[in-house]
Amino acid sequence: MSKKTANDNTSFKKGDFIVYPAHGVGRVTGVEKDTVAGFDIEVYVVAFEQDKMVLRVPTAKATQSGMRSLSSDKIVKDALKTLKGKARVKRTMWSRRAQEYEAKINSGDLISIAEVVRDLHRGEDQPEQSYSERQLYESALDRMIREVAAVENIDHDTARDKLSKSLLAKAA
Fold it and tell me: Which residues are 148's β-sheet partners?
């Protein structure tokens, strides 16, 4: 295990896209000094356009909180390959599966998110999803679209089309 130093977290700078596990893709809009409970701390100011939200993440806790750079091209390729795989639906109660899907989505890991999209995707010939299945599917798909769009520097519609093609490729 590599030794962490205080400077490990200075890798994010203004304008960088990042992934924050609970919120998806955001953009660092600056690094500021704040005073919290009498302590001076340095924070990343991260804007999440889709949620109209700004998050302030202490630079010293960024990595610990799960904040990371966008996925590499290889991880995006692997995630798209995951979408083409056969759905793996466990025969456990929906509430347990829903919790597992939610945990995968909030992990911020693109491959795990792709697994949720793959497992909850319904083709034209398959039965309708329940409301909660649809919510989880849309949430995972949205997270994936945002990251693929940011990594490949394409718009959301183009990213959505790319994911749809991968999902349809598994049906063929």
Answer: none
Asked whether the whole model's pTM tops 0.85, one would answer no
For residues 86 and 48, what is the distance between their CA atoms, to the nearest angstrom?
A: 32
The whole-angstrom separation of Cα 74 and Cα 69 is: 14
Provide the token pair at 147: 């990251």
Q: How far is it, in rounded angstroms, from Cα 115 to Cα 29?
A: 31
Question: What is the residue-level pLDDT of the chain in tens, covering all 172 positions?
Answer: 333 333 344 489 999 999 998 889 999 999 999 888 888 899 999 999 877 899 999 998 898 888 999 999 999 999 999 998 888 878 889 899 999 999 999 998 999 999 999 999 887 767 788 899 999 999 999 999 999 999 999 999 999 999 988 888 765 5
Domains, in order of start, for the chain: 6-69 (2.40.10.170), 73-171 (1.20.58.1290)
Token reading at 127: 């039965």
